[in-house]
Each structure stands twice: as structure tokens, then as C-alpha cells.
Amino acid sequence: MDHKAYIAQRLHVEGVSPEEIAGCIVVPPDAGMGDLALPCFKFAKILHKSPALIAEELARAYPADEVVERAAALNGYLNFSLNRTGLAKETLDRIEDEGSKYGSSDMGRGKTVCIDYSSVNIAKPFHIGHLSTTVLGGALYRIYNFLGYKAVGINHLGDYGTQFGKLICAYKHWGEREEVERGGIHAVNDLYVRFNREATEEMEAEAREYFRLIESGDKEANELFEWFKRLTLAYVQKIYDRLHITFDSYAGERFYTDKMQPVIDELKEKGLLVESQGAQIVDLEPYGMPPCLILRSDGASLYATRDLAAAIYRKNTYDFEKCLYVVAYQQNLHFRQVFKVLELMGKDWAKDLVHVAYGMVSLEEGAMSTRKGNVVWLEDVISRCVEKAFAIISEKNPDLEEKEAVAEKVGVGAVVFGALYNSKIKDIVFSYDKALNFDGETSVYVQYTCARANSVLEKARGKGIAWKGATASEPCAQEFDLLKALAEFPDVVRSAANAYEPSIVARYCVDVAQKFNKFYIDCKIMGADSDMVRAFRLRITEATLTTLTNALTLLGIGVPEKM
Ligand code: ARG
């Protein structure tokens, strides 16, 4: 049950809807204050009364029942105590019932959310800078699907631009078919880097000509371009597989080549296009922004032009309720401009476009630079983390079976979790050692907790002990703390979606793992005083495993059975 909604239904605050009230209810940091609390400060203005008085009046009117035992006012807060036995039963029944679906919902039924993420650049390195967009987008994609939405994952490929002319030129001068085929994206990138370092004026002119040839549909130039694209996508696919990332569409910038003219015509028709120094722009000065460049003076389109066409195309094709762009905060201005232009064009759905901005990821060792070829490739970060995970696991548990498979889950998980644990807008410095710390706020810690739960359950199964449907009299403090946390999961998933913030799920995993470990240490599970209590504790253990597995899966992190 969603206790916040349950309580909100039973409270009456003039002019505030139950949904709004539910949104205000929090879990107090100190359980002594109650299990849930409603701060009444917000209502003081509306009701023209002091928060303390409002809380007291609400407390007096609240109808306690077998779900909420007590509502008490304290310093402007209305604190609720839940019935422990009732909460335990209800939570465990529900988790047992729903299993891998626990936490899901149908709130998104019939609604579509487009998510633009990862959006790789063809023939360019797939580096650590792409980690956040890829795993954040992937997590949001799974979270929205879990909530019943139809999520459409879009890889808006960077496959348009003069760099492809340069690449073809470099290949023509220095490249060799077999060598590039063998070297894949690395060989392609080397050519590009070499061009930027060594190209003469003449070659620059040639490169412009090759770009023009791609644009005009020249067969050879397009074949080369498609080849580079194939090599890049084959390469990134391997990484997507390791990260459990999927897409529904790879319509990139080039896809919009023939869809820009109608947008330009519409801008003209609506009187939004103005000429400035030979270029065509939309003036955004009244909105405090530099102009949005639509066509350069040589008639070439821009990144923003293609994003305008893409947004319109997506609306027409998917009729999205929301369209998310998981892109670094460096592009804040770009998206503000694009969204504003669409609004000026009269697209009332422009308000449904959301730039989900995130901060930079760097490695502890030092900064990275893409221009000169000394790039930190994402693949190398993942492989290194998996290698380190393998070494740690081998040392801790030399007899473990399938060490490679476990190390893959642990190492990949550590990279993913490292990018998802902090609020997305923060810049993060990734450290292998911190990410692989078994006692830290890490995925390894959570995975280890799952393995621990699993091993208790295995042991019980081995002894023929059953726990399905088990109930106990009132849960003790550790059990109740854990059960309360488990009951919150559906709410956590919803909050993560509403805030576009998978870190809410990541932090929740650590919180539940900590509570489980406290329970595991303080309460004897297999050695409980009675069969009834033992079965109850096993049931809590299984519910924890189910919940943590569901949460980690949403983040794209695998759960090893043993560690
Ligand atoms: N390829 C772009 C980059 O690496 C990101 C594209 C983001 N999506 C978009 N619709 N603009 O910067």
C-alpha cells in the first residue's frame, strides 16, 4: 500500500488536493518522531493559521485505524505511527505476490515517453564522457517502462557534419581497407586525429569537397560514410550489451536531412526567421538568449536546425507525453534555445520537452582531452574495473565458481553505480578503489548483501524450511525499520521518474542494504528462538532480495547469486 496516499485520503486541508498532501509527506530522519510526517508549514499561508495549530487540528480529526495507529502533532509536524504488524503483513504479502514486478505500476498506461540518450558520434571515440548519458538514459528507460509507460529509446547519432569529409580525405591519403576494417573505430579515430594534426590547406579544401559529395548523394562518398558508421555502431553495440542498454531508434542527425526544409519554411511563414550577416536566425534577445542559428551564410544547416526537425518528427511519430534529452549541462543553452523556438512556433507541446542535464565524469588519475587523441575510452574503464573486481573476488573467495561472470557483474555494476549514485547534475570523479569498496556506498556492497541474503535462503531450503506466507507477532525495531524501507520501494521508483533522478533508486539500494545488514547482525535468522520467528525472518530476507534485485535491475546492474 502507498501509505502516503492512504493518509492523504484521510486528511482534509482546505484548498489542497490529496495528491498534493501525499507529495508533502516525508519519512522523518528520526524514527522516534513517527514513521511518516506531514510538515504543516506550507499550509500556514493558505489557512492563515500557525503550523502548530494546523498540525494539532489535523491530529484531532485524523481517524486512526489498523493501518495508521496514531497521528500526533509536534512543532508544526503531524507525525504518524504505522501499525507494525499490519505493515509487515501487507508489505510481505505484496512483495511475495508481485515478485519481479514489485515496485512497478500502471500509472503510465497509454502514455509514451521519448528518451534521447547516449547519442554517439560516428567515427569519434566513445569515451568516459558518454558514460552518464548512456547509463542515466538506460535507467530512465527501464524505470519508465516499469511504471507502465511506453518508453522509446532514441540514439540521436552524431552522423552529420564536416568531420566526415575530413575522415574520407584522411582515409584516401593514408588509410588501408583491411587495416581499418581490423582496427575498427580506433583506426577510424586515428585517421581523424592525424587529419587534425597534419592536414594541409589543400587537404582541408578536399575534405570540404568530400563533405559536399556526401551531401549530394555521391555513391563512393556515401559508401565510405556508411562503412565508418557500421564500424562505430558494431563497436558501441558491444559496450551497450555489457551495460544492458537498448534503443528503439537510431534515427540520428542525418535522418533529418530532408525534414529540415519544412521547418525552415514554417519559421519563415510565421515570421520568425530573420537575416543576420547573411545567416538565417531566430532572434531570442527578448528572452535573454543569443540568437538560434538556423542556416549559416553558405546555406548549411546546424545542430539546432536538426534538433528542431527531430522534436517535431518525434511528436508526430510517437505522440509523446514527454520527450527527455539526457545530455551534458554544457548544452543547456542549446536546449533552451531549441525549446524556445518551438514554443514561438506555437507548438504547445514544447513544454513537454525536458533537458535532463548531468555533470562531468572524470577519472581520479587526471583530466582527459578528446582533441589530441589521448582519450579515456569507456571500454577501457569498464574492462579495467572488471579486472580489478576479478582480482578482489579471487582473493576474498578463491573457491567461488564462475568468477569471470561474477566479476563482470561486479565490475560493470561499479562503473554504472559510480555514475548513478550522485545527483546527476554533480561533477564526479570516478575512483576504481572507491567504486569497488565492499563496505562503501557502492553497488558491490549491495550485491554482496544480496549474495548474503541468498545464501541464508539456500541454507534454509537445504534444510527443508518453508517461509512462504509466514507471519509473526509485532516485528522488532530492526525488522520494522527494514520492512518500512521495503514498503517504500514503489514510491521510490515514482520519485526517481518524476525527478529524472535514478540516484534516488541507487541511494535507496544502499539504505535497504544497510538496514538488512543491521537486521542480519542483530536478529538471528536461522538461529531464531522459534520456528515461527525464523520463518518470518526468512520471509523478510527473501523480500529484501526481491526488492534489491528489482532496484538494481532498474539501474542496469546484475545480481550474482554468490560472491
Ligand atoms: N551527439 C551529441 C553530442 O555528443 C549529443 C546529442 C544529444 N541529442 C540531441 N538531440 N541533441 O554532443
Protein model, in words:
- It is a single chain.
- With 563 residues, the protein is of the alpha/beta class.
- The protein has helices spanning 3-9, 18-24, 43-47, 51-61, 84-98, 131-146, 163-174, 177-198, 201-215, 219-243, 260-269, 303-318, 332-344, 378-396, 403-420, 432-435, 443-462, 477-487, 489-498, 503-522, 531-555; strands at 36-39, 68-74, 77-82, 112-116, 150-154, 273-276, 279-282, 292-295, 322-328, 353-358, 361-363, 428-430.
- The protein folds into three domains: 3-82, 2-Layer Sandwich (Gyrase A, domain 2), CATH 3.30.1360; 112-257 and 306-362, HUPs (Rossmann fold); 393-555, Orthogonal Bundle (Isoleucyl-tRNA Synthetase, Domain 1), CATH 1.10.730.
- It has a four-stranded parallel sheet with strand order 5-4-9-10, with helices on both faces. A three-stranded antiparallel sheet has the order 1-3-2.
- Helix 6 (131-146) links the parallel strand 4 (112-116) and strand 5.
- Helix 19 packs antiparallel against helix 20 (503-522).
- The longest helix has 25 residues, at 219-243.
- It is flat and about 85 Å long.
